Amino acid sequence: MPASAGLPGIGVGTWAWGNQFLWGYDPSQDGQLEATFRRAVELGLRFFDTADSYGTGRLNGRSETLLGRFCAGLDPAQRSRLCLATKLAPFPWRLGRQGFARAFAASRKRLQGQLDRVQLHWSTSRYAPWQEGPLLDGLADLVLRGEVSSLGVSNMGPQRLRRIHGQLARRGVPLTSLQVQFSLLCPGGIEPGGVVEVCRELGIELIAYSPLALGLLGRGPGESVPRGPRGALFRRLAPEVAPLLATMAAVAAPHGAPLAAVALNWCRSHGAMPIPGLRSPEQVEGVAEALCWQLEPAARDALDRQARQLRRRMPGNPFTSA
Fold it and tell me: Domains in the chain, ordered, with CATH?
């Protein structure tokens, strides 16, 4: 299914594949997750994002393992059209230029050899700035040796992004993408000088994680509140978000689209590729509908205004740099 002309596509986030604490994952869901993956491929979703830290407790790395298994089940032509990206966590014990060597090898093994983009999971500039440069040099080495096609970063603000872009450019390695939390409930990137503007200026792909705010922006009237931490967040934000959801419903109505499609197309209208977490073929169907249309400028402006006026928003990632 082709993307709306001139806009980024939509990818798939796999944080929930293996996460018991927040998403209630159970291995019995693996068949449904494989069906979700296959339906996403059928409908033209090409970018799949994971991380070596995804998966709770003994299931650490489960997301990569499942994605690798599902991808291996495709024919070579289908596999060649996908981009599998993982994020490596800069844990305190991962030090120096070779600090990611074992982690990269382990991720590539779990992904059964198909690893197209490697990303730094978060910036260490707030607590160990001396750690970040050598780790990024090590990732750049992987690109220069042809072990991975492209390099991205995650959870960086505009100042750090410019610095890292320059560091990599001096070595002749393009910074392909930046991944940040970006949604109508986390809209900071749209401000002047924010990551939206800087990515456009530097030619960096912007990837929006949590574009549905853990599901809150896709929740229809009367739907039950999820259990656990997500439910607590929903209850705290729901009264504040109600007017925004009403505006989203008005935007969605002429297209016969779900609320989630509005939230995703808001990201796309700002030049970001959203990567919603998908756990069922039905969710894939709803997400794919967003590729068939785009927000009118007036609708985007109205949503921007409401997003800026919200007093309560999604909690920010504490590791995101300035």
Answer: 12-309 (3.20.20.100)
Pairs from 133-138 (Cβ < 8 Å, separation ≥ 24): 133/167, 134/95, 134/96, 134/97, 134/99, 135/90, 135/94, 135/96, 135/97, 135/99, 135/100, 136/164, 136/167, 136/168, 137/97, 137/171, 138/96, 138/97, 138/98, 138/99, 138/100, 138/101
Cα-trace Rg, the chain: 19
With the C-alpha atoms ordered 179, 8, 243, 228, is the resulting torsion angle positive or negative? negative
| 314 has pLDDT over 80 | no
In whole angstroms, what is the distance from residue 186 CA to residue 19 CA? Answer: 22
Q: Are 82 and 114 in contact (CB under 8 A)?
A: yes
What is the overall mean pLDDT for the chain? 93
- State the DSSP H helix or E strand holding residue 181, giving kind and residue range, or none if neither: strand 177-181
Taking residue 106's Cβ as centre, other Cβ atoms within 10 Å add up to 14
Distance (Å, whole) CA 97 – CA 120: 13
- Looking at residue 231, its pLDDT comes to 81
Q: Which of 25, 54, 127, 209 is catalytic?
A: 54
SS3 183: strand
* 97's tokens: 């230029």
Check the CA dihedral 150-152-158-159 and report its sign: negative
Output the pTM of the full model.
Answer: 0.95
The pLDDT tens digits for 17-34 are 999 988 989 999 999 999
Nearest to 273 by CA among 49, 50, 70, 52: 49
**Residue 54 annotated among the catalytic residues of the structure:** yes
CB 183 within 8 A of CB 233: no
